[in-house]
Amino acid sequence: MSGLGDMGNLLKQAQEMQRQIDKVKSELRTTMIEGSAGGGVVRIELSADRHEVKRVEIGPDVLQANDPKMLEDLVLGALQDALRRAEETEKKTIGQVTGGMHLPGIF
Hints:
alpha+beta, Ybab, Chain: A, three-stranded antiparallel sheet, 3 strands
């Protein structure tokens, strides 16, 4: 009989973890992440959950430089920075729920 009780507790724990994961996913949907390059002259903001770019900001000094290659490099750097920060945010936030365990299919 204790096997059924253990199974019930395990099921309750799994359901609670799923509720917490759903809450975290909801929070990540409203979280914006900013990445930058060139000391902040190019900034990109994206959503933490889907990594959708929401805003790109380019400082006037970069535009006045009239250097397309530099601008491309700065935009790429800012995007990579934002994506890295979003991934770190996801891992940290989900890790708080899962105790650091990697659970496939959560994200």
